[in-house]
Amino acid sequence: MKRQTHSAFSLIELLIVISLMGILLVLTVPAVTATLEGNNITRAGQIAADQIALARQIASTRNLGAEVRFIKIPSRSASGYSALQVWTTDSRGQSSPANKVVVLPEGIAVSDRPTVSPLFSVPQAPTGSMPSGPYTGQSYGGIRLRASGAVSPPPAASDRASLYITLVNSRLAGNSDVPANYLTLQINPDTGNTEIYRP
Fold first, then answer.
1. Closest CA to 146 of 83, 92, 189, 100
2. What are residue 30's phi and psi, to 5 degrees?
3. Positive or negative, the Cα torsion across 61, 100, 103, 113?
4. β-strand 139-145 against 81-89: which pairing, if any?
5. What is the pTM of this model?
6. What is the CA radius of gyration of the chain?
7. What is the Cα–Cα distance from 197 to 199, expressed in whole angstroms?
8. What is the DSSP track for 21-54?
9. What is the mean pLDDT of the chain?
10. Cys-Cys crosslink for 77: which of 1, 170, 178, 183, Cβ 3.0 to 4.6 Å?
11. 86-105 burial, b if ≥16 CB within 10 A, otherwise e?
12. Long-range contact list for 122-125, CB < 8 A, 24+ apart?
């Protein structure tokens, strides 16, 4: 009678395979994390561009002034803006929200540092505290648009190139320099059109 032999992995072979899998996992996690963060930054940039386009459209169709407010949410970012909302201003100067607050993807914020997002330091940029809604009392910075789509009031010649914001990882929103992974959104002062720049 023939003896049957069964082949199996030894404990040492199994440990070697598990160790190799662990090493591969350690090497790939940073790359995957950076890719996911980059996708979130791109998505957040598109959300911001869409809100500015919506403000232009509302201002044009209703023949009103409109502004995009970038709202700070301290629980999401210590120093950056994590949400946006479009507001309109009627002929009496009364402001009211034109849509719901749109929150950027988790972990992404618009930097509030003048060296990275100089739009918020331009003299005519609207600032204040949210008067109503889910983020009442939270501070905001923004940009105003006329019915023609132009920035209101028109920026000084020295400020025309400063109408841009930078989206970064929310942990880095307080840094005064641009990190390796970012998105810049440039706003044309004459038309309100936006252009997205990625490294």
1. 189
2. -60, -40
3. positive
4. unpaired
5. 0.83
6. 24
7. 7
8. HHHHHHHHHHHHHHHHHHHHHHHHHHHHHHHHHH
9. 89
10. 170
11. bbbbeeeeebeebeebebbb
12. 122/155, 122/159, 122/162, 122/163, 123/156, 123/159, 124/151, 124/152, 124/153, 124/155
* 45 closest CA partner among 167, 142, 161, 143: 167
Q: What's the pLDDT at 4?
A: 66
Among 85, 161, 89, CA closest to 122:
161
Residue range 125-152, pLDDT digits in tens: 889 999 988 899 999 999 999 999 899 8
Domain 32-197, CATH number (from 3.40.50.300, 3.55.40.10, 3.10.690.10, 3.30.930.10): 3.55.40.10
What residue spans define the domains of the chain? 32-197
Kindly tell me if the per-residue pLDDT of 7 is higher than 80. no
Fill in the amino acid letter for 136.
T
Q: What type of residue is 52?
A: I
